[in-house]
Amino acid sequence: MMNKLVEFHLKEMVRASKSERDGHPEYAERLRAAGKLRLMVMKPDEITELAKMLTSKEQRYEDVRDQLLNEIEGIKANTQWMRNLFDGD
Predict the structure, then answer these.
(1) Does 72 have pLDDT greater than 80?
(2) N or C, which end of the chain is more exposed by having fewer CB within 10 Å?
(3) Closest by CA position to 32, among listed 22, 18, 52, 44
(4) HEC states along the chain?
(5) CA distances from 23 to 16, 17, 35, 79 (A)
């Protein structure tokens, strides 16, 4: 059974993509900013589960997990994205 946070995160990232496709880039950015915040609070086992969900046949999930962990470090280092959480339409 998929972890609820991981499941919610994946659904919201799909929603962000659809919003951008449908001409709502500001809303998509807000959804992506919330996704970055979720990534920052995920536990190691949740990051591993997310990596397994995102891994293609050509990849190892450990490599994807390491990429996610590097991405999270970048998110923590650059907080500019946080303004998208609060920008209104």
Answers:
(1) yes
(2) N
(3) 18
(4) CCCHHHHHHHHHHHHHHHHHHCCCHHHHHHHHHHHHHHHHHCCHHHHHHHHHHHCCCCCCHHHHHHHHHHHHHHHHHCHHHHHHHHCCC
(5) 11, 10, 19, 25
pLDDT tens digit sequence for 18-68: 999 999 999 999 999 999 999 999 999 999 999 999 999 999 999 999 999
**Neighbouring residues of 76: CB distance < 8 A, sequence distance ≥ 6:** 40
pTM more than 0.70 = yes
Amino acid at 29: E
Q: Is pLDDT above 80 for 88?
A: no
Q: Are the C-beta atoms of residues 7 and 42 closer than 8 Å to each other?
A: no
